[in-house]
Design goal:
Helices cover 37% and strands 17% of the residues. The chain has 349 residues and is α/β, with parallel strands linked by helices.
Length: 349
């Protein structure tokens, strides 16, 4: 088989002071390797057993393979080399999630890119498109994620089921993070890991999807060291089983999950105290999960019904809050103002 010369091997030669790399035949090179060879002014020299004696300069990368100023502006397929920054042009959301920044988001339930784009301009760090509780499927999800490209806001997606199709599908269309609901067992995490991580960690398939700028930046995968470094998974803790299995869940999630997220609605439902958000049993359970995730060095988010509740969760040390949904926020604004207007025009309440 033809030898493949990688960027890291070129760097190794360069570190050893070798500028002419001896090879028995012209190797296969990725665009990144070729760029590196060019950048360092190095060349490949065929040895005696090769067919040429003169140095072979680095094959110039095709014009479209130069780093693209505008992501996605190059040719598509597997071969291009646009610069992948993550988040399709924004700093990688996984890095933001791992930082100390407190994150504010809201759910999106309207299955339309215009609403997503509008909310993307309102000052949230991220929106979480909720396809667990709304009829939002992959085709629509992709358009909604695309609509965020011209906003400073990241697009998280809450998938409806823990399936290969949904995990890989939502990641491939460019979700900056996945929120995985209804996690109960260590076995769930094992499945999640296998669906979301590229081999050898998992069994996620690789393809020229929107995530990799339709193939232009997919070349980075082979050179990246940790090829799963961009995959950003947030796990929901919202069942009694998850509370019981929390040690195993945290252990199995090590290395691929940075943020956990509590769903107080489902947790209270599962505990038989639905909606009793100040019930000490629920509050104690939430704070127990806070201690456990904290001890494991993980960040923790929670759902809040409004901005005031969000502030109190941040005061309690939470790292991320999803404040209700765009529809609920609209409803609140209208219900606060409408009675006053009705009264002002002489209508009884
Ligand atoms: C819950 O409260 O159950 C949630 O899933 C909120 O996101
Ligand atoms: Mg829930």
């Amino acid at each position: 088989m033809q030898k493949i010369l990688t960027k890291s091997e070129i760097l190794d030669y360069s570190k050893k002071g070798i500028r002419q790399i001896p090879m028995e035949e012209i190797p296969l090179m990725t665009d990144l390797a070729r760029e590196e060879l060019n950048r360092l002014g190095m060349e490949i020299v065929l040895t005696d057993r090769g067919t040429a004696s003169a140095p072979i300069p680095a094959v110039p990368a095709p014009a479209q393979a130069a780093p693209a100023a505008v992501p996605g502006s190059t040719g598509g397929g597997y071969g291009g080399a646009a610069v992948y920054e993550g988040g399709l042009g924004k700093p990688l959301f996984k890095e933001v999630i791992r930082s100390v920044r407190k994150l504010v988001g809201t759910f999106i339930g309207t299955p339309h890119p215009v609403m997503t784009e509008y909310v993307g301009h309102l000052g949230f760090d991220f929106v979480c498109i909720d396809s667990e509780h709304n009829a939002i499927h992959l085709e629509t999800l992709q358009k909604m994620l695309q609509s965020l490209s011209h906003t400073p806001t990241y697009g998280m997606v809450r998938i409806p089921t823990l399936s290969y199709e949904m995990v890989t599908g939502a990641l491939d269309i460019g979700a900056d993070a996945l929120l995985i609901p209804q996690i109960r067992t260590v076995e769930d995490i094992v499945r999640l890991k296998s669906y979301s991580q590229y081999p050898p960690v998992g069994r996620r398939g690789v393809g020229p999807s929107r995530l990799w700028e339709y193939g232009d930046s997919i070349g980075k995968l082979g050179e990246a060291g940790d090829i799963n470094r961009t995959t950003n998974i947030v796990i929901q803790l919202e069942t009694v089983s998850a509370v019981e299995n929390i040690d195993g869940i945290l252990e199995e999630s090590a290395g691929f999950v940075d943020m956990f997220f509590i769903g107080p609605g489902d947790l209270s439902m599962d505990m038989g105290i639905f909606g009793q958000f100040s019930n000490p049993k629920l509050v104690d359970t939430i704070m127990y999960l806070r201690e456990k995730t904290n001890a494991a060095g993980k960040r923790l988010g929670i759902f809040a019904g409004n901005f005031q509740a969000a502030k109190s969760w941040f005061d309690k040390g939470f790292d991320m809050v999803i404040i209700n949904s765009e529809l609920a926020l609209l409803g609140t604004a209208v219900s606060q103002e409408m009675p006053g207007l009705r009264a002002a025009i002489g209508e009884k309440q």
